[in-house]
Amino acid sequence: NLNLGNVAHLKFWVSEALDTDALVRSWLVEFPDPTCRPSVSVVSSDLPEGRALEVTVVASRGPSVACIYEEGVAADSFPSAVVRGDFFTISALSGADPTGEISEDSTAQARHAFVRLRSLLDMAGAEPSGIAHMYVWYRDHGERERVNECFLEMFPLPADRPCRHSVVRRLPDGEVIQVEAMGSVSGRRATYAIHGVWHSGINRVHNSLPIAAKAGPYLFTSGTYGRNLETSEIDDEVDLQTKYAIIHTKSLLKSAGVTPAAIGHIYAWVRDAADGEYVRSTVIAELLGSESSAPVHVVKTGLPRIVATTNIIQLEAFINHPF
Question: Three-class SS string for the chain?
Fold first, then answer.
């Protein structure tokens, strides 16, 4: 019972060969009113053979409160941020300076991206404390420290940070980083740590990033990986990593006071595309069961190594629930 007018955010997963400018122009036809358009992120992706495009959509029943265009952005484009009801979403922001130029210095790019993020939050009437989830897209993990410097300025307290998923992707020429965010305009963020699994994306400190964060009725997990509860190691087998990623996700749901029925969407990030169908079917059977018909979107990606072990899969759940 939704329509295109309810769409708050579009994420295009595109092959390297796809003309992204033409793609964006074609989708603008579907949203002729510039005051009622979604924010957009275009993500370069290794798609299954023969496929050039996949699309994921975030929609909300709330009224369109604001479509926010940055200064100098043409009206015949998608907005940089959207507020729909209490929900806000911010497009993938490059590190362009106010003139639209991209510095060759990655530190400058990171700083400009976070300046843009802060400005868009102000225009949306939101605060950094309302951000529940962030994506960081960058060319390689070597840019992590540049991102962390700006991230820590905005979120200095370890127990009060949004969950963050940092993913290596091909970016447009000259760009080394993009950031995007989602959350609540009026809600105040709460974070979760789960026994047996942790994130150490800030200076390799355990729990320096939360396993999940909630703001208002919106709960997001970060990329939840499959650390074995019995050995505290990460096994090399996809079935064991999937098993424990599901266990950790269930622990999060229990601590938040919800069941799998509240899950609205899951990303299953896989290192090897050949594992995708196994992970998808196992998540449906062992996590969602008969309680939820949430879509499971399998995304092939280069997952990080943790010490000597490689992450084969990660799960990431989006939940909308009247907490």
Answer: CCCHHHEEEEEEEECCCCCHHHHHHHHHCCCCCCCCCCEEEEEECCCCCCCCEEEEEEECCCCEEEEECCCCCCCCCCCCEEEECCEEEEEEEECECCCCCECCCHHHHHHHHHHHHHHHHHHHCCCHHHEEEEEEEECCHHHHHHHHHHHHHHCCCCCCCCEEEEEECCCCCCCCEEEEEEEECCCCCEEECECCECECCCCCCCCCECCEEEECCEEEECCEECECCCCCCECCCHHHHHHHHHHHHHHHHHHHCCCHHHEEEEEEEECCHHHHHHHHHHHHHHHHCCCCCCCEEEEECCCCEECCEECCEEEEEEEECCC
Whole-number Cα distances in Å, 203 to 70, 194, 195, 213, 226: 33, 20, 20, 20, 21
pLDDT digits 0-9 by tens, 108-144: 999 999 999 999 999 999 999 999 999 999 998 888 8
Residues 6+ apart with CB under 8 A from 275: 238, 312, 313
d(CA 321, CA 29): 33
Mean local confidence (pLDDT), 198-227 = 93
Q: Note whether 118 and 154 are within 8 A (CB).
A: yes
In sign, the C-alpha dihedral spanning 144, 145, 150, 153 is positive
Over the chain, what is the mean pLDDT?
93
